């Protein structure tokens, strides 16, 4: 995703420390940051926030975390959180490689990966969020029965993810090879999903768990 730099975004985010963690202030104590102790769902790479803010509005009984490293994008998530007056959504401005610095073992119930960067070149596969190193971190922070929900329009990334997750020791509880043809009324569109589907792109989706949860 190409992001136009907003020089003022960092200062804007820093003005809202009750909603945005810019420097790891809540690392290791994320549950304490929320008003209520509830299950935690994370979206890694939230983009402009349509997906995560819609979920937070729909499910007040869940605590949500938006993790986005691009400050020039995260300000849009913050705008939506403020507009909707959401008290069950917090934001982390950092890279996914730092997940286990923020969350304790078994603290998270669900991770969403929506339209992640496919890093199509073979030499960059270690940067894909379904590469084994990222999966190892996910396994640590997820509860024993925790889930990873994944959506993409990139067939290559989807195929890679199926193989990577299977080899790691995961199993799939749901697979959609053409999501929008299946009329899933529970599906919440991201900004990019709407854009891609309107162009006729096929949307792939999966839900997966680690075998330790059996």
Describe, in short, the structure shown.
The chain is α/β, with parallel strands linked by helices.
Overview of this protein structure:
- The chain has about 210 residues and is an alpha/beta fold.
- It is built from eight helices and eight strands, in the order H-E-H-E-H-E-H-E-H-E-H-E-H-E-H-E.
- The chain has helices spanning about 10-15, 30-35, 50-60, 70-85, 100, 130-140, 155-170, 190-200; strands at about 20, 40-45, 65, 90, 110-115, 140-150, 170-175, 205-210.
- It has an eight-stranded mixed β-sheet, sandwiched between helices.
- Strand 2, helix 3 (about 50-60) and strand 3 form a beta-alpha-beta unit.
- The chain is globular and about 40 Å long.
- It starts with 8 loop residues before the first helix and ends with a strand.
- About 40% of the residues are buried.
- The mean pLDDT is about 90.
């Amino acid at each position: 995703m190409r992001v136009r730099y907003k020089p003022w975004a960092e200062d804007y985010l820093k003005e809202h420390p009750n909603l945005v963690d810019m420097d790891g202030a809540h690392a290791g104590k994320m549950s304490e940051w929320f008003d209520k102790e509830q299950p935690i769902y994370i979206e890694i790479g939230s983009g402009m926030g349509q997906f995560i803010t819609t979920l937070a509005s729909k499910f007040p009984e869940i605590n949500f975390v938006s993790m986005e490293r691009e400050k020039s994008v995260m300000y849009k998530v913050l705008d939506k959180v403020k507009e909707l007056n959401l008290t069950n959504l917090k934001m982390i401005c950092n890279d996914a490689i730092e997940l286990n610095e923020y969350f304790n073992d078994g603290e998270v119930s669900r991770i969403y990966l929506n339209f992640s960067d496919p890093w199509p070149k073979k030499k960059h596969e270690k940067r894909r969020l379904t590469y084994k190193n990222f999966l190892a971190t996910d396994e640590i922070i997820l509860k024993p029965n925790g889930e990873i929900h994944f959506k993409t329009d990139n067939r290559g990334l989807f195929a890679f993810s199926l193989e990577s997750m299977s080899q790691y020791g995961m199993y799939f509880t749901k697979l959609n090879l053409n999501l929008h043809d299946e009329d899933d009324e529970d599906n919440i569109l991201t900004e990019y999903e709407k854009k891609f589907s309107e162009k006729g792109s096929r949307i792939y989706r999966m839900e997966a768990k680690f075998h330790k949860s059996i």
